[in-house]
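Q: Could you fold this chain for me?
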Amino acid sequence: MRVEQIFSAGERPRKLSECDEWLLLRQIDVLRRQESSFTLKRLMLEAGIDARTVSCKTVRRLLHRHGYKYIQARRKRNLNSSRSQNKAEICTWYKA
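A: Sure. Below is the predicted structure, expressed as structure tokens.
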């Protein structure tokens, strides 16, 4: 018997489905627009993933696999529409 056959026949079932992975990755952009910083547990809660069945380490591995490595909280405030208009007015005033 080959080693590849043993592992392919007896793989563990995945904790996160493809739909769950998509929801997590999409929810990152949504939370970044709403808040400047958020935790992994908050991300799981917003994506609808139960923390009792999927560990934070599993979700962290998924994020690392998709390129979200070493994410720190943003120190800037979010720029909403009123702040962006205000900033544009200040920039045009300084330029003139």
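A (continued): The mean pLDDT is 80.
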